[in-house]
Amino acid sequence: MISKKQLFWKRIFDFLLSLMLFPLCIAPLFVLILIATFDTKTYGIFTQQRVGQHGQLFKIYKLRTLKEEVHNLGHLSKSATRIGKFLRRTKLDELPQLFNVLIGNMSFVGPRPDVQGFADTLIGEDSVVLKVKPGVTGPATLKYKSEEGILAQQNDPEKYNRTIIWVDKVEINKKYVQNWSFYLDLKLITKSILN
Length: 195
Prior knowledge:
Layout: H1 4-40, E1 45-51, E2 57-63, E3 66-70, E4 76-80, H2 82-89, H3 97-103, E5 107-109, E6 135-137, H4 139-143, H5 147-152, H6 157-178, H7 182-194
Helix pairs in contact: 1-3
């Protein structure tokens, strides 16, 4: 099980790496924000409340990839633009999360930060997942990197997500927290870059 001391060193690593990467990423990020702004016709940064460490809510930052469309009957819907799909596929939409890591409400490696109704409902042994900060990448993220495609093939995507994918993610993330090591984080970061 990850200890308080290990959590401290994990945070030091996250802070130093994000501090090193931030100057390198600021120019490309600014360009991507402009592209996303023109592409979606609204500000290119998307923010949303997510469940973080110990179940506390925080604001996550992502590049905006969805565009609002008005249909004949005045009904509004959101769909990913062509550029938005590219940003999602390449994970460039998650580049602003570097700021989340820098300020300390996310880690480079950990469980994906979920919306309310998932991680914040964990009880008993499963709640160990909340001991660590949510991550930009992680073992469950890597396994389900094509999650949108998997869900698109299901008759009831929401039910499949809650009863199959989410249950599996909890088990994967529990093992991550219980068997954490600095080497494991480096291995997962490397695997994420290569994938």
